[in-house]
Amino acid sequence: MSEELLYKPGLEGVPAARSKVSYIDGRQGVLEYRGYAIQDLAEHASFLEVSYLLIWGQLPTRDELDAFEHDIRYHRRIKYRIRDMMKCFPESGHPMDALQASAAALGLFYSRRALDDPIYIRNAVVRLLAKIPTMVAAFQLIRKGNDPVQPRDDLDYAANFLYMLSERIPDPLAARVFDVCLTLHAEHSMNASTFSAMVTSSTLTDPYAVIASAVGTLGGPLHGGANESVIEMLEEIGSVENVESYVDDCITNKKKIMGFGHRVYKVKDPRATILQGLAEQLFAKFGHDEYYDVALKMEQVVTDRLGTKGIYPNVDFYSGLVYRKLDIPTDLFTPLFAIARVAGWLAHWKEQIGENRIFRPTQIYDGHHDRQYVSIENVNVQYQFSPTPHRGYIQ
Ligand code: CMC
Q: Which residue owns the Cα nearest ligand 1 atom 28?
């Protein structure tokens, strides 16, 4: 078969690995982690139980989960040098950039690469799951001009994170809802950031570099960054009356509607359905959000207009409304996604290094051949008005 026929932009539909971590049926709206339905895990398991399942392949026993939670609880603190480094970051910097830099910095402190040592692997898993939330919360307080607070050992994973953000012990419903959000975002098979994590893993670098590269990939608006764009879009639309004209304008001008569409799902993302239920629980307890009415109308109009093309709400459509009700600033939505996805990235890291072959795809070369070198001294004025700068072009 010719290279041209094999080439798929965006690698759409091209298998890049064998994996046992998660399964998606995009036509039926099925998502399973290690064979367990996402609905069951969201309802019954905690995020750390799900993380254990993803990374080690089996649900933990009571003793295994207790030991895992214990280790994570007591590794939440970050080195003061990392906090000091974060104090030097510009306050106007995006929290995803702060997180990427901080995750990479962990590699400076825990630099040994013993990828065949199960204790090294467990320690790296514990450190990353434990410290990433602390770093997200620390940057949030630092950019407000405050000192970061220390984690609270008496609080569980989700409650402790909300505490570190707000310096208040969260309402139990808020903590439980946030824990479920983490479970829903923990893993999603071969998406862009996971692929990025796997490519980095395949070089046998350290897991901190793996997570830092995945965080960088997650930040873009076509991937994890979409949840932030959804809230900006709802703010721009403003009220239910403006929904139809907004959607029609997007369709006419071929503009993507944020929070809709998915490379794999051709029906409503099952996580969007669960998140919508969580949002409703929060509204019932803490008060309604008028943007929810705008969102409901959008779902109806977009489904009407684009449903036949398989465009339905994805995970990012309702997650922003949940986080808004938890008083989380919009630009922290993607870092929250990253906190959760660390579990999935680590599961794929472990799988990759267990049976490694370095990623080295090929390309179809579309460039020049046999060009004549022009010395920089011999600027050729005939290129003076060339629209693209190149040797010989005079600005
Ligand atoms: N709004 C309007 N039209 C859309 C949308 C959308 N959100 N998504 C896809 N389409 C249309 C697109 O215009 C194209 O139409 P046509 O065939 O007539 O040119 C067709 O559907 C296929 O679109 P595509 O961009 O080729 O599809 P893709 O599989 O490359 O993109 C996507 C998937 C998620 C990048 C895209 O749907 C999108 O940009 N959505 C908005 C951003 C978003 O919500 N991203 C979060 C994704 S889920 C979480 C995550 O992965 O992090």
A: 263
Ligand 1, pocket residues at CB < 6 Å = 10, 191, 222-224, 226, 256-263, 306, 309, 311, 314-316
User: DSSP for 234-292?
Assistant: HHHH-SGGGHHHHHHHHHHTTPPPTTB--SS-SS--HHHHHHHHHHHHHHHHH---HHH
Q: Which atom of ligand 1 is nearest to the CA of 223?
A: 52
Spans of all domains in the chain: 33-225+330-354, 226-323
Judge contact between 8 and 239, C-beta under 8 A. Answer: no
- The residue behind tokens 């779902």 is 299
59 CB burial (10 A radius; 0-12, 13-18, 19+): middle
- What kind of fold does domain 226-323 have according to CATH? Cytochrome p450-Terp; domain 2 (1.10.230)
Per residue in 40-82, pLDDT (tens digit) is 999 999 999 999 999 999 999 999 999 999 999 999 999 999 9
Average pLDDT over residues 291-298: 97
CATH 3.20.20.120 for domain 33-225+330-354, yes or no, is: no
- CA distances, 25 to each of 32, 37, 65, 263, 308 (Å): 9, 12, 29, 12, 18
Assign 190 to helix, strand or coil: coil
- Any residues with CB less than 8 A from the CB of 134 and at least 6 apart, and which? 76, 77, 78, 148, 151, 164
How far is 323 from 300, CA to CA, in rounded Å?
A: 22
| Cα angle for residues 142, 234, 269 (degrees, 5° grid) | 95
C-beta separation of 270 from 325 below 8 A: no
CB atoms under 10 Å from CB of 362, counted, come to: 8
Exposed e or buried b for every residue in 76-96, given b needs 16+ CB within 10 A? Answer: bebeeebbebbeebeeeebbb
Look at residue 33 and give its three-state secondary structure: strand
By the 8 A CB rule, do 189 and 20 touch? no
Q: What is the pLDDT of residues 183-212, one digit of tens each?
A: 999 999 999 999 999 999 999 999 999 999
Q: So what's the pLDDT on residue 204?
A: 95
Of the residues 181, 217, 260, 337, which should be mutated to test ligand 1's pocket, given the most ligand atoms within 8 Å of the CB? 260
- Average confidence (pLDDT) over 171-176: 98
How confident is the model at residue 243, as a pLDDT? 97
Helix (H) / strand (E) element for 25: namely strand 22-25
Q: State the average pLDDT for the chain.
A: 94
